[in-house]
Amino acid sequence: MLLKNKQSYDVVVIGGGIVGASCTLALARSGLRVAVVEKECWGSGATAAGMGHLVVLDGSEAEYALSSYSQTLWHALGPKLPAGAEFCSPGTLWVAADTEEMAEAERKFHYLDDRHLPAKLLTAAQLMAEEPELRAGLAGGLLVPRDSVVFPPVVVSAMLEEAAKLGATLLLGSACTHLGNGEARLADGSTLHASRLVNAGGAQSTSCMPGLPVKPRKGHLAVTDRYAGFLHHQVVELGYMKSAKQLTAESVACNVQPRITGQILIGSSRQFGQQDAAIDHALLGKMLRRCMSYLPGLAKLQVIRSWTGFRASTPDKLPLIGPDPRDNSLWLATGHEGLGITTSLATAQLIDCEITGRAPAIDPAPYLPARLLDPNTSLLNHQEELL
Ligand SMILES: Cc1cc2nc3c(=O)[nH]c(=O)nc-3n(C[C@H](O)[C@H](O)[C@H](O)COP(=O)(O)OP(=O)(O)OC[C@H]3O[C@@H](n4cnc5c(N)ncnc54)[C@H](O)[C@@H]3O)c2cc1C
User: Fold this and answer.
1) Which of 90, 227, 325, 367 has the most Cβ atoms closer than 10 angstroms to its Cβ?
2) Are domains 7-48+152-213+317-386 and 89-146+215-313 of this chain identical in fold?
3) Strands 169-172, 53-54: parallel, antiparallel or unpaired by DSSP?
4) Which three-class secondary structure string do you get for 332-375?
5) pTM of the predicted protein model
6) Cβ partners under 8 Å of residue 104, min gap 6
7) Is 7-48+152-213+317-386 assigned to CATH 3.40.50.1860?
8) Ligand 1 center to 114 CA (angstroms)
9) Dihedrals φ, ψ of 213, to 5°?
């Protein structure tokens, strides 16, 4: 239901993906009057397109801090989620193809072990025992058993249902065209007022705030029919991190996930400079061949659907979480690239603590938007372009 007149809230959140829903729920739990605005369907953006792998990454200390804190929050939330959220913990099996990648597995093991995160180095024989479908001749691997999997759109629904019970207003069907100076103007002519506005628009967060340093990064996924027992862990090649961090126009890496349903979710690709959601069949083929080079048995499985989605990428590979230095009503919760399902819960905690003035569990400094936004650049100039 859309409200045609002026409405006032403590906080207006733009975007009903996993990040917007997590923020809405956290703020509603803190007793704030929150409205969340979504122009399409709840959880329909990258949240519906992603793999739902809840994975601790260590590309930087900041990435580790956010993803490991978030994973702790997911383990607390997981058992309370509805069955349709398919929360489970198959663990991640990082696969080393050669001795160079095995050295990376060892580095990763020591990094996690030093931080008391369970992980186990595997010889080539142990790797094959964990996943018999892997091809012969791999060097070994690293098992991170606490990494988990979830079906994010169901989590979004559950979060928004709880937030609504706490008094949050859910506004579906109109885009926010202008965000700033305590106002969210919607395409249907409504204006929402709030002392805090949170932009959680993912790859489209520039649609109401042009000039944000967020760019869409396209990805492809494919899913098979049901083949229970084919795979036991999320299997990721150790070269995946290299591919995720690359700023080249396009890359693929083996990232394959067993779903509770018995289906196998196959990823993934990364492309810059693409706005078109159509499947790039050449790239999809390249991605599938990459995965089959690790798991040859995939060739016998029936793929029933493939699709694309857009990650919200930032120049320094960290999300933008916190106040916008150019407008004291504006807050950002965007730019989560390929890790936003994992890091949504920690993002919401940071936003909630910063807005309510409570001490956050982790240092918010590395994610503050001020690192990438010039406080002297007038946001108004950008917004006027939209009017
Ligand atoms: C192929 C692929 C695989 C991935 N795999 C994983 C994974 O395994 N693990 C992981 O952690 N992450 C993964 N990700 C990343 C993850 O999906 C995203 O980081 C996450 O979903 C971001 O959530 P979000 O809420 O910020 O954005 P979105 O889910 O895109 O939500 C933003 C919402 O805001 C709405 N919106 C935008 N602008 C406006 C506006 N002006 N007015 C109103 N509404 C607006 C959009 O309609 C959208 O629904 C993957 C992503 C892709 C594409």
Assistant:
1) 367
2) no
3) unpaired
4) EEECCHHHHHHHHHHHHHHHHHHHHCCCCCCCCHHHCHHHCCCC
5) 0.95
6) 96, 238
7) no
8) 32
9) -80, 60
Domain ranges for the chain, please list them.
7-48+152-213+317-386, 89-146+215-313
Token pair 């944000």 in the structure block, residue:
212
pLDDT band, residue 376 (cuts 50/70/90)? confident
Asked whether 366 and 65 are in contact (CB, 8 A), the reply is yes
Looking at domain 89-146+215-313, its CATH superfamily turns out to be: D-Amino Acid Oxidase, subunit A, domain 2 (3.30.9.10)
CB 306 within 8 A of CB 222: yes
The set of protein residues with a Cβ atom below 6 angstroms from ligand 1 is 14-20, 37-40, 44-47, 49-53, 175-176, 200-204, 207-208, 219, 221, 267-268, 309-311, 334, 336, 338-342
Q: Does residue 268 have a cis bond before it (omega within 30 degrees)?
A: yes
- Sorted by sequence, the CB contacts under 8 Å of residue 224 that are 6+ apart come out as 263, 264, 266, 298, 301, 302, 303, 304
pLDDT tens digits, one per residue of 68-118: 999 999 999 999 999 999 999 999 999 999 999 999 999 999 999 999 999
100's CB contacts (< 8 A; 6+ apart) are none
Q: What are phi and psi of 322, to 5 degrees?
A: 135, -170
pLDDT at 365 over 90: yes
Tally of CB atoms within 10 A around 385 = 9
- Residue 197 · residue 179 · CB < 8 Å: yes
How confident is the model at residue 242, as a pLDDT? 63
Helix (H) or strand (E) run with residue 239 in it: none
Phi-psi map region of 52: left, alpha, beta (phi>0 left; psi -120 to 50 alpha): left
Task: Give the H or E element holding residue 266.
Answer: strand 263-271
Distances (CA, A) of 33 to 9, 17, 22, 184: 5, 19, 15, 15
Q: Which atom of ligand 1 is nearest to the CA of 219?
A: 1
